[in-house]
Design goal:
By secondary structure, the protein is of the alpha/beta class. The protein has 11 helices and 12 strands. Strands 1, 2, 3, 4, 5, 8, 9, 10, 11 and 12 form a 10-stranded mixed β-sheet that branches. Strands 6-7 form a two-stranded antiparallel sheet. A hairpin with a 2-residue loop joins β6 and β7.
């Protein structure tokens, strides 16, 4: 089809036509809001590198979740900052840990909000790594029991879904087996299956106080140069019992999201991470961009690439924008 016989602008001329032929639709139902819980009461600590986000005590956290629910956001992802850390990350799987308390508070106040929990050890260990350290190295197999114990404690607290983000080999299978044996066979697992060793995580590490105290995480997170490895990682987690596969980060890995969408038939999540949020916010604060328009375009690109759901720190702003359309 060639001009002038074909005129592509014919179907762009009117708003009604543009809506009728729109190929990708972003809705509030696609959004998951990450939140940070801390011990105490009446505290909301601003996160300097993530303007508009805070570390919340449970009372404030519940208020934010209520606002999110009123906007139609269907789910939140909870991260916890413990009151103390140790080599074994014991507060990660303690029945009175911060995430466990936050889950109970949210489910009591907003029972219809889906509560997802991040399952990892980095916020809870004094060394800041996602698994146990033995002789200066991350011991994969020793870590599995503790990760499974963490997931189980979240399920017992009332979590609707658990999301292991540690990138230890075999952790999805270990968590699935533990949940099933303890009577939680209906709790789904959203696996951070394709998690890259990314520079985009900087603001999160400030928010969650989870910076490694030595070395880095390249021995267990993926090389940003690799795409075939993403298929292997996702396939392994599916075979171990994952219900949803996640790609993290999102914006620099749209090709990975698209490739996985073609390769797997499970629901696919994408995590638009703290660095993505911070860059947009910084440019917005400088007056260089229209922040909300860039947010919406970014989220639409992630959905267009093939994601079924998006974890985003812009969920509240995006929901307001979508609800006003």
């Amino acid at each position: 089809m060639l001009f002038p016989d074909f005129r592509a602008r014919r179907l762009r001329e009117k708003s009604a036509f543009r809506k009728m032929i729109q190929e990708t639709v972003l809705t509030v139902n696609d959004l998951i809001l990450p939140l940070f819980a801390i011990e105490g009461k009446g505290i909301k600590n601003p996160i300097p590198s993530m303007p508009g986000h805070f570390q919340f005590t449970c009372d404030y956290l519940v208020s934010v979740v209520k606002d999110a629910y009123d906007l139609g956001i269907p789910a939140v992802m909870l991260f916890g900052l413990p009151d103390k850390k140790d080599p074994l990350g014991t507060r990660a799987y303690a029945s009175d840990g911060i995430v466990q308390k936050a889950v109970k508070a949210v489910k009591e106040a907003v029972p219809d909000m889906a509560v997802l929990t991040d399952v990892c050890l980095c916020q809870y260990t004094d060394h800041g790594h996602c698994g146990m350290v033995e002789n200066g190295k991350i011991d994969n197999d020793v870590s599995l029991d503790l990760l499974a114990a963490t997931a189980l404690s979240h399920a017992k607290a009332g979590a609707d879904m658990v999301a292991p983000s540690d990138m230890m080999d075999g952790r999805v299978g270990e968590i699935r087996q533990t949940l099933d044996e303890e009577g939680f066979s209906n709790i789904p697992i959203m696996s951070y299956a394709v998690k890259y060793a990314s520079a985009y995580y900087g603001p999160f590490r400030q928010a969650a106080d989870s910076k490694p105290q030595f070395g880095d995480r390249r021995s267990y997170q993926m090389d940003p140069a690799n795409s075939l490895e993403a298929i292997r990682e996702a396939t392994m987690d599916i075979e171990e019992g994952a219900d949803i596969i996640m790609v993290k980060p999102a914006l620099s890995y749209l090709d990975i999201i698209h490739r996985l969408r073609d390769e797997i038939d499970l629901p696919l999540a994408a995590y638009s991470v703290s660095g993505e949020y911070a860059m947009i916010k910084a440019a917005e604060l400088m007056g260089w961009i229209d922040g909300i328009k860039v947010v919406m375009e970014t989220l639409l690109s992630i959905k267009r690439a093939g994601a079924d759901m998006i974890l985003t720190y812009s969920a509240m702003d995006a929901a307001k924008e979508l609800n006003n359309k």
